[in-house]
Amino acid sequence: MFDLKWIRENPEAFDSGLARRGMLPQSPDVLTLDKAWREAQTEAERLQAERNRLSKEIGAAKAKGLDASEILTQVAASKERQAVMETEAAERLRAVEALLAGIPNIPADDVPTGADADANKLVRQHGTPPSFVFEPKDHVALGEALGLMDFARAGKISGARFVVLRGELARLERALAQFMLDIHTREFGYTEVSPPLLVRDEAVFGTGSLPKFADDLFRTTTGLWLIPTA
Fold first, then answer.
1. Domains annotated on the chain, with CATH
2. pTM, whole model, 2 decimals?
């Protein structure tokens, strides 16, 4: 979630960053909603302060034996108006938060600006790509020829772009996952964590999957989401 205060103070930088992602300026809409929210919130706070002042006047009037009915009427009206403004403030805050939730992050300064992958920069290269005196086969041809990859069976049970791994290749995939975890936890100071596979809305929102990918996620009838890596 973006910092509203930062957007207020840096609308040009906000829009400039989004422009690098091919987006139109968003600060006008954000700041309009933000202003409406702050105005409603300020009015609600003003009404609360007014009620506090009137409450003191009621106490003073009763202490002097004066009629405080008119002040009581003002307090009741102020209370009703405050409730309305608090509701409006909450609705406007939800609106600005919903807008910000759908806006992607601004690229870091060192990210190349470009329309597609052709604008990417090679940061480093390890080793030399091998050259062959024959036309190499891709992983699909090799995997199917060795009986280690079964695309036809995967297509029947899951559809296109899925694969069933068999034998040593299935074992290799499992070993690579273990190897990666062992390297990071033993040599780079990470702590291995096994989180729940079902989480609440806030958790999926916090990882950036909601609201953008709501239609691509699986949700239980109890309101929990299956985490993407599950």
1. 4-101 (1.10.287.40), 195-230 (no CATH)
2. 0.68
